[in-house]
Amino acid sequence: MNRKRFIYSLVFLFTVILVFIDTILTEEASGHYPFIWSLALIPIIYIINMYPKWKVIIGSGVFYSFLKYTTEFSQKINPSNSEINALILGSLINWSIALTMGYFIIKSHKLFLKVEELTIIDSLTGAYNRRYLELFMEKSIPISKRTNSSLVFMMVDIDHFKKVNDNYGHQCGDQALKHTSSIINNNVRNTGVFVRFGGEEFAVILPNTDVAEGLIIAERIREAVEKSEFIYKSERIHFTISIGVSIYNGENVEEFIEKSDSALYKAKENGRNQIAIN
User: Fold this and answer.
1) Considering the domain boundaries, does residue 124 fall inside one?
2) Residues designated catalytic
């Protein structure tokens, strides 16, 4: 049983138990336990943790309030004023607790997402980082094996990047990385995943893409960088990239990446600003 199904089962179980307890209690017992419906906070908290949104909090509160008053008034046609007051007071308290807990759950969820984003996003370029690459490959390779679908991996490297840093400074180098990152991302955003692999190296993963399609995309990226306008402090700086391409053929992640790295090395050995396949 997966986690969501387990939580759904708990929510249903608590709801049924809550209605059952309230139904079987005698009128005398009900008078002693006016806040029995506070137990509804348990499934509400489960629901909010699964879907931390204000509309879910409000919707859950409205549902259990409706359930509460429907159950209570179906058993007591003419409840006393004290019983009505106890029900209303209980509702106010429960709503206050639910809204307060919902606020903190939503806030903590946003903080968690922010921290999670920081662990998988490269702060300079805004691309995914190597950590995300590892997570993505762990999912993509089994899918590729199971569905017998193709998977293309590219290693992209800025040619003579050290000269850019040496001649224009590291600030210029950073801007060049951002510039290249933007071009690559614009050319793969609808077909694959783009990652900053490290330094001036980037990686592109293309699920459900064969070699021919991968080479077309690689050439599109290479040409876009070569023809792009990169200006730093009013000076146009020209640079190119080399790309190594490989297709998945049953190897492990490290070997798959190594194939693209070897292809990249071949592209550089052959004169740079070109694509090689392994």
Assistant:
1) no
2) 200
Name the residue range of residue 229's domain: 130-277
Residues 197 and 61 in one domain: no
> Low-confidence residues of the chain, pLDDT below 70?
1, 25-34, 76-77
d(CA 200, CA 204): 14
Tell me the whole-structure pTM to 2 decimals: 0.69
The domain boundary residue, chosen from 119, 141, 162 = 119
Structure confidence by residue, pLDDT tens digits, 42-60: 899 989 999 999 999 999 9
Q: Please check whether residues 137 and 194 belong to one and the same domain.
A: yes
In a domain? residue 27? yes
- 207 and 259 share one domain: yes
275-277 β-sheet, strand order: 193-198, 201-207, 151-158, 241-247, 275-277
Q: Which long-range contacts (CB under 8 A, 24 or more apart) does 100-103 make?
A: 101/41, 101/45, 101/48, 102/48, 102/52, 102/54, 102/57
pLDDT in tens, 109-139: 999 888 888 889 999 999 999 999 999 999 9
